[in-house]
């Protein structure tokens, strides 16, 4: 079994995931109620966006903490490469 693994960013990620869960539950209710396809599609977009933002926050937190913990302190050149890599994750 793995050890508990938390970061300062986890409460914000949990908040995003709970928001996604709320949007998903609302979407299910909308389908059950027979709401319009446009309304349902808009709600599904909100679900996708909330999950996408949670994933992005998790990946960036991993880059900021887990990788550096694994390899040790980064030198200036390595820090620049890591900053570039972190920046490109914005496009996930």
**What is the tally of beta strands?**
0
**Poorly predicted segments:** none
What proportion of the residues form beta strands (DSSP E)? under 5%
- How is the biggest beta sheet arranged? none
Question: Whole-number average pLDDT?
Answer: 86
Write up what this structure looks like:
There is one protein chain. This protein is mainly α and 92 residues long. The protein has one domain (10-91): Metal-sensitive repressor, helix protomer (Methane Monooxygenase Hydroxylase, Chain G, domain 1, Up-down Bundle). 78% of the residues lie in helices and 0% in strands. Helix 1 runs antiparallel to helix 2 (37-71). The mean pLDDT is 86.
Strand-helix topology:
Blueprint: H1 10-33, H2 37-71, H3 76-88
Helix pairs in contact: 1-2
Compact description:
The protein is mostly helical and 92 residues long. It has helices at 10-33, 37-71, 76-88.
What attributes does this structure have?
single chain; Methane Monooxygenase Hydroxylase, Chain G, domain 1; mainly alpha; elongated; 92 residues
């Amino acid at each position: 079994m793995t050890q508990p693994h938390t970061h300062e960013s986890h409460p914000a990620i949990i908040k995003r995931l709970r928001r996604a869960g709320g949007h998903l539950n609302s979407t299910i209710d909308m389908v059950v109620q027979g709401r319009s396809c446009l309304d349902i599609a808009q709600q599904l977009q909100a679900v996708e966006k909330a999950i996408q933002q949670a994933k992005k926050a998790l990946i960036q937190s991993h880059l900021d903490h887990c990788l550096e913990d694994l390899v040790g302190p980064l030198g200036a050149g390595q820090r620049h490469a890591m900053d570039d890599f972190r920046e490109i994750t914005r496009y996930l």
